[in-house]
Predict the structure.
Amino acid sequence: MLSRRRSPVVASLQLPPVTTLLFLWVLSCGHATANTDIANMTALQKHVSFFDRNKDGIITPIETFEGFVAIGCDVAYSRDSASSVHAALGPITSPVDAPLPHINIHINLIHRAMHGSDTGALDAKGSCRFVPQKFEEIFIKHAKVRPDALTSSEVEEMILANRDPLDRRSWLAPVKEWGLTYKLASDKDGFLHKDSVRGIYDGSVFVKLEEKRSLQIEI
């Protein structure tokens, strides 16, 4: 069950009316839990499970907000992103018997949120499993300056190369996902390393970013 105690960051927000109602509903009502089998999670489930802060199988808007803040995003970006992500994915991943409104993301149904114009490193045919061959192709095709890392222009090239001309609605998601990862995880020389890219698919890069931010705060 989601804790009803607000974090200092959440409590200090000045939110638009719709977003405020959304967050207050989650805080006041809580939600049911879902079974979570971490050992047998797909790569996509692991990718999003970082944002399941209490590890109950269901991600609330508050948890997504706190997850974005934890990896280094500012409050405004985290608030707006949490609202838009849940508005898009909540209805898609909610079972029919979930309480209204369908704004929570259910990890066991996250495969419903798969989109086109991606790298193919996640199998889109229902399994959402990691595909090593497709992952290696990212660097074979696009890593020209260094074989084990991507520059900003190489990330943009990769995104453009993977666009599905028949699915224009899927073009924006990779731009947001890769843009944020590059901004937060690239090194001081502008390289997004292979291990960081690998960490996108299993969510481990988010854990590292949170640890890095925690050390910076302590310093």
Notes: Residues 1-32 have pLDDT under 50 and may be disordered.
